[in-house]
Amino acid sequence: MVARRAHNPKVIGSNPVPATILNSPITNKFESTYMNEEPKLERSLLSQELSEDGHRVDVEIYRLEGEDKWVLEVVDEFGNSTVWDDLFLEDSEALLEVKNTILQEGISSLIGPEDGKSDSGSCN
Length: 124
Known about the structure:
By secondary structure, the protein is α+β, with helices and mostly antiparallel strands. The chain has helices at 25-34, 91-105, and strands at 4-7, 41-43, 48-52, 55-64, 71-76, 81-84, 122-123. The chain has one domain.
């Protein structure tokens, strides 16, 4: 099973705290590349809507333009977001992961609270 975390942009404190390492080559590259412009995302053609048992989720598979690995994010009908911690080499691997999650745990495992409030900031 791949680790994933939930987050709701409407709830203060549900966003993960950003990690910052000052004066590292990665931070310096990021700052010089992205601080003055909006990063460009490449959205996978495999991004899609999935539904089961009356619930719907939007499966978003994307990566920064020029990057190799894909991000998997699932947004439920209430705007709650679940993002996998691990990245995927292929967009098809990301889609397979979310479909397996739904088969094994049910789509309700990806549905957050309707009001956007929860007791914990992570799933599994």
